Amino acid sequence: MEKEKALRDHLVKLLRGGQAYQPLATLLQDLKAEIAGKTVQELPYTIWQLVEHMRLTLEDILEFIQNPNYKEPTWPDDYWPKEKAPADQAALDTSIKAISAGMEEMIQLVQDPSNDLFKPFPHGDGQTLLREALLIAEHNAYHVGEVIVLRRLLGDWES
């Protein structure tokens, strides 16, 4: 039981970030819609597209975890926004808040000892809560790096 609690605690730290990479909440705070929609030469995406992609992917994973009747979205169309920029600051803020809420939802699932980290979901093909938590952490870490690079290239990040 002590080892399982330690694992859950480590997963929460990994999901929150800040150990080996910038925490997502810190990275996205004070992000402005004008910056999020700017393109950088030679890069195929904007910060907005990365943020929305993280939101859509997180929501999909949470849906998979919690819905036995889960239907997989179409890749890549349902995982990436077509618009390069948010409609306005409110759209960007809504997306960021949804990511924050989704991350807290995932953290609650991981922290709840009644949720077996190792039991495969009956509606999946071997996926477990542990696997999905690691997938979210890995996915976010990858895109956090991209957002930092974009913010730096756009003169919007100094840390």
From TrEMBL:
This is DinB family protein. Residues 20-146 form the DinB-like domain. It holds the Pfam family DinB_2. It comes from the Bacteria.
